[in-house]
Amino acid sequence: MSFSILGTGKAVPQFVLTNDDLSKMVDTNDEWIRTRTGIRERRICKEETITDLCVSAAEEAMKDANITANELDLIICATFRGEFITPSEASLIQKRIGASCPAFDINGACSGFIFALDVALGYFARKTVKKVLVIGADNLSNVTDWNDRSTCVLFGDGSGAVVLGEGEGLKSIHLTLKGDSDVLYVPRGKNTSPMYEHESENPVVHMQGSEVYKFAVIAMIKGIRKALKDAGLTEEDVAWVVPHQANIRIINAAIEKLNIHPEKFFCNLDKYGNTSAGSVPIALDEANKAGKFKSGDIIVLCAFGAGLTTGSAVIRWE
Ligand code: UT7
Predict the structure, then answer these.
(1) Phi/psi of residue 258, each to 5°?
(2) Best residue for ligand 1 mutational test, from 213, 252, 272, 282 (most atoms within 8 Å of Cβ)
(3) CB count, 10 Å around CB of 292?
(4) Is the pLDDT of residue 1 over 90?
(5) The pTM is what?
(6) CB–CB of 142/204 below 8 Å?
(7) What is the 3-state secondary structure (H, E, C) of the chain?
(8) 202-231: per-residue pLDDT in tens?
(9) Shortest-distance Cα residue to atom 18 of ligand 1
(10) SS3 letters for 146-172?
(11) Which residues line ligand 1 at a C-beta cut-off of 6 Å?
(12) What are the backbone dihedrals phi and psi of residue 243, each rounded to the nearest 5 degrees, phi first?
């Protein structure tokens, strides 16, 4: 037993931070950011908490799936930056939406949403669930060094959600981990123990951009090919690719090597930047609500992130 996607939702903060706004904060400009990344603006939490966004995305997905919170058997939230260290972000969402099922977080960084789909698959395979809410969300503005122009222009906040039900929509899913904590990481911050002997680093994104870039392009190409092969499909069968929205140049570099038409890649990173675990489900929801998907369409999801993680999945839209 696998699952199908019954509904999607998303929520982003109200506040829009444009490239011009950023050029007043650090030594950058709209032209550099647009040409190097494709990003024009991003949404940043001011009044909203990340939980507010997760709850809105979850409620929208449940409405789209035509189900109520008490029908949920499980909630999984993919995030590395929920509101609290503990309890989990998923438990905050469970309480706010009025569900009573178990709920937990997983951390697969920017690939987290696809990691969470894979975890959900195990529950469906064991036939212990009928409806699962999967959310991807991160609050990157809270771990951004706003004085570092090489990273602060890239990120935004947001949340996307799907409701999964029993079905055969998921055709394959593939996760990888390189085991790297040097090229992209966010330290936890100062240890409160007076006995602890290690130095603490600033709890913001540390990134070697070009190393991540090279990894990302290969990850996308390999991930898409592997997931399609496992599903018994080819690049010609693909109706849509919903990639991690990190940098349009990464997506375009992957497109050059793949036999999939560029117009089949759904991109919205110009509006939101990189929202980490929120990125793929936000894009999935926007494409869905824009009426892009037809029943029977083969959709490929792919992502990469800290860890270094990758995730790819093939879904038949139903
Ligand atoms: O979810 C995964 C998260 N991370 C990623 O996906 C990031 C992957 N990496 C990237 O997207 C790209 O490597 C970046 C967008 C981060 C950087 O693009 P790049 O083409 O690799 O630029 P670069 O780091 O090689 O920097 C080129 C120049 C440098 O100046 P010099 O040394 O050539 O004089 C930088 O100092 O651009 C400079 N620079 C900037 N200039 C204006 C770096 N950031 C900025 C900026 N505005 N914001």
Answers:
(1) -100, 155
(2) 213
(3) 17
(4) no
(5) 0.97
(6) no
(7) CEEEEEEEEEECCCCEEEHHHHHCCCCCCHHHHHHHHCCCEEECCCCCCHHHHHHHHHHHHHHHHCCCHHHCCEEEEECCCCCCCCCCHHHHHHHHHCCCCCEEEECCHHHHHHHHHHHHHHHHHCCCCCEEEEEEEEEHHHHCCCCCHHHHCCECEEEEEEEEEEECCEEEEEEEEEEECCCEECCCCCCCCCCCCCCCCCCCCEECHHHHHHHHHHHHHHHHHHHHHHCCCCHHHCCEEEECCCCHHHHHHHHHHCCCCHHHECCCHHHHCECHHHHHHHHHHHHHHCCCCCCCCEEEEEEEECEEEEEEEEEECC
(8) 999 999 999 999 999 999 999 999 999 999
(9) 36
(10) CCCHHHHCCECEEEEEEEEEEECCEEE
(11) 28, 32-33, 36-37, 110, 149-150, 153, 207, 209-210, 212-213, 216, 246-247, 274, 305
(12) -90, 165
Q: What is the dihedral of CA 270, 276, 277, 279, to 10 degrees?
A: 10
Residue type, 168: E
For residue 44 the two structure tokens come to 């940043």
Dist CA 232 CA 245 (whole Å): 26
> What's the token pair of residue 41?
């603006």
Tokens of 2: 């696998």
User: Domains of the chain (ranges plus CATH)?
Assistant: 2-168 (3.40.47.10), 172-316 (3.40.47.10)
Q: What is the mean pLDDT of the chain?
A: 97
